[in-house]
Amino acid sequence: MSAKGSESNPYDAIVVGGGHNGLTAAAYLARSGRKVLVLERRHLVGGAAVTEELYPGFKYSVCSYVVSLLRPWIIRDLNLSRHGLRIVPLECSYTPQLDSPGLCRWPDPDQNRQEIRRLSRRDADNYPEFGKLMGKLARFAKPFIDELAPDPTSLRPGDLWQFKRAADRFRALGDDLVALQLKLTTMGGVDFLREFFESDQLIAPMSCSGIIGTMLGVNSPGTAYVLLHHYMGEIDGSSRAWGFPIGGTGAVSDAIAASALEFGAEIRCSAPIANIRLKNGRATGVILQNGDEIAARSVVSGCDPSLTFLRFVGKENLPADFAASLENYKNRGSSGKVNLALDRFPEFIQRPGIGPHVRGDVAIAPSTEYLETAYDEAKYGAFSRRPFINVVFPSLLDPGMAPPGKHVMSCFVQYAPYDLASGAGSWPDHREAFGDAVVDTLAEYMPTLKGDILHRQVLSPWDIEQEIGITEGNIFHGELGLEQLLFQRPVAGWARYRTPIPGLWLGSSGAHPGGGIMASPGALAAKEMLRAGAV
Hints:
single chain, alpha/beta, FAD/NAD(P)-binding domain, 7-stranded mixed beta sheet, 20 strands
């Protein structure tokens, strides 16, 4: 038995998993004077938001690699800026082409208009208007990621008031925007965008926001809604902004951890748990893999729902209907990551130089047909031979990420299905071929790339599951489809961080409002625990 967290002197809360949400929950609980312990299985905190030096002098944002939805109120509450968090905005979004300079979408409206005008005068005129419309819808949707999920079955005054506020916001949109919102929830991303634009070179990269982290294609119904998340991002009050944390995404986790420690939380790394300890059906602490037992009044999981309930609790200890819903919960990891250490910057052949066009993100999405073909391969259990790739060069935004004159290249890759076709072998058999497909695709646009590579890290969903501990390697802790959002995340009736196990709470990306470096699930879970007197 641990000296601390004993039966006679338990922790108020044990947080299982030191990802950014678990750390956020710990920080809020400790800020309120609670005795909190965070247990992390790896040698460092952060989960999927980590920075690691895997090749001398080069720092990789191993999984998650950009920030947009990190809530401003959490940054303020936890004093994250004082703890070293600094996020610089991405300057543009560049989509290269093999036979033309490609397309840059800039933050400056006039510059953006001139760029799009090369493709279509109509699209150049419509682009700012589309942005205004989506911005209005984002302002309607944004409150949902800062508050408890609505409960459509509740007649409690507070829940009815929440629905009234949402209904008032919805009515205030006006008939045209209400119709647009309804289209967003039902249409495929490409079809939705074609109602505004005609150039496929513009539609293709814009549609990619609807497929990130899902086993869906750009034409699949429902993907239009995910586009809205792109318009909910903000950095320092600047809406629709995406950014890179100085020091990599691990800097976000480190700042939250520093805040939690300052408030009095305890954090232990290299401390994997075997089970959540139950007594008379109630969570009373955890059992570590080394056999130690640690007692707590409550346990909050920062891990994904499948890992939390089906492994740490056990199906046999869950209500049958809840367990059945969890078994049908869609994880379906569909993305991989390739990180490269480069001897020099590999310039794009059609738009050479190290200019502002490469100081944002680069989307390998030359056409909607290209993207749909990549999805077709994944549907049948194969990684995409010519995948959608979203690239960031962290060393251009933060020179400390690589030695002088050298560079780091961060490549988010879709599609890489967790479940490979029957008879195709396992991911360890295909990992390097997957990495080769990514590099081969990029080298079409950057001819020197292969000769510039000093080191590469290739992560399939299987590798993410093994290394980070996320079921099926889905870094969002489950797909962000409409059937797994709001009051249905992770299971209908259990979307407010409570679970069927008394004393056990869920505060991870698998809870409302979902994935991304947002920190809302952890913060809202802690606030609900405090409101309920659970700690």
